[in-house]
Design a protein that fits this description.
By secondary structure, the chain is an alpha+beta fold. It has one domain: Creatinase/methionine aminopeptidase superfamily (Creatine Amidinohydrolase), CATH 3.90.230.10. Strands 7-6-8-13-14 form a five-stranded antiparallel sheet.
Length: about 250
């Protein structure tokens, strides 16, 4: 929970903008007929061009530079060679290093079109919950429970399952730092955040139950009941009187 110094923050700010540019570019390439491995290849090229490091590659044995999870897969999906089908719910999660500092972000998009009202509720509701979690940060003195409570309120309103076994986290010097940032909780509880801290807020929600399971590949985490999942994430900086989103163009 160590605050970052001004130089480190500036590096994360620059790295966050580059990550956002890459992630937004990759999302635009998700379409029926395109393979997750195609997206991964594009990611490798863009990461190298930007002069960034794919910190998840080799992290605890992860075999790729990006996590791509489809439909009932929530997070940590290894890019596969099966082409996206029209209507697939696709999650892209990108964690990159820049000048020894780490930034992390994720988006959920549809391959082609999906007019199902529940799917739209899932994606829009999860994104709205991320926005609410960020808005709950009122600067130094904000508690982690303030964020979780705000995220939970939106997801409950949207009648979405809240993944409880996976949480947001501190980030910057490493991929995962203290504190954990759950997507549920009570306002006014939990660790106190101070100016200079950087955390990744990442709501993960489902159209069904919150329980998850590990796939046979030992990485991909999917919903136990087979329901669709969504995931959005931003790395943010706690300021003295507010918050700054770092992973944005």
């Amino acid at each position: 929970m160590n605050p970052k110094n001004p130089n480190e923050i500036e590096i994360m700010r620059a790295g966050g903008k580059m990550l956002a540019r890459i992630l937004n570019s990759l999302c635009k390439q998700v379409a029926p007929g395109v393979k997750p491995t195609d997206i991964s290849k594009m990611a490798k090229e863009q990461i190298k061009k930007a002069g960034m490091q794919p910190v998840v590659l080799g992290y605890e044995g992860f075999p790729d530079v990006i996590c791509i999870s489809v439909n009932d897969e929530v997070v940590h999906g290894i890019p596969k060679g099966n082409a996206f089908k029209n209507g697939d719910v696709v999650k892209l999660d990108l964690t990159l290093g820049y000048k020894s500092m780490v930034v992390d972000s994720a988006l959920t998009v549809i391959a082609g079109e999906n007019t199902n009202a529940d799917v739209k509720r899932l994606i829009a509701g999860t994104k709205k919950s991320l926005d609410a979690g960020i808005s709950a940060i009122k600067g130094s003195g904000t508690r982690v429970g303030d964020i979780g409570s705000a995220v939970q309120k939106v997801l409950d309103q949207q009648k979405l399952g809240i993944i409880r076994d996976l949480v947001g986290h501190g980030v910057g010097y490493d991929i995962h730092e203290a504190p954990n940032v759950p997507n549920y909780g009570n306002a006014g509880s939990g660790p106190v955040l101070s100016a200079g801290m950087t955390i990744a807020i990442e709501p993960m929600a489902t159209l069904g139950d919150w329980q998850i399971k590990m796939a046979k590949d030992g990485w991909t985490i999917a919903t136990r009941d087979g329901s669709l999942g969504a995931h959005f994430e931003h790395t943010v900086l706690i300021t003295q009187d507010g918050v700054e989103i770092l992973t944005i163009e």
